[in-house]
Design brief:
Blueprint lengths: L27 E6 L4 E6 L3 H13 L6 E2 L1 H14 L7
Antiparallel strand pairs: 1-2, 1-3
Bound molecules: zinc ion.
Length: 89
């Protein structure tokens, strides 16, 4: 028994800290504004806020900017999933 030095430590080098600032694995969704001709990607959890804010500050509260219609369906699904609404109990 001479083989020593094999220190098998359980590598715990993967610290997945979730500090604020990064969207992490949160899905981002595109907001489009036809009047400004802009397209912005925002985190799903903030999309409502940001659309409101944009319309509020740029368009006097009119609903001009919106989630990319092509994705709206999918997003509704994501949100529903997030809230557990798809799990019909
Ligand atoms: Zn706009």
């Amino acid at each position: 028994m001479a083989t020593d030095g094999d220190t098998t430590d359980t590598g715990d080098g993967e610290g997945d800290d979730n500090h604020a600032g990064d969207a992490g694995d949160e899905p981002s969704v595109p907001i489009v504004c036809t009047e400004c001709d802009t397209r912005t990607r925002v985190p799903l959890s903030k999309v409502g806020d940001l659309v409101d804010r944009h319309n509020d500050t740029r368009h006097d509260g009119e609903s001009v900017a919106q989630v990319d219609p092509a994705l709206a369906d999918r997003i509704a699904d994501l949100v529903a999933e997030d809230m557990g609404l798809l799990e019909g109990e």
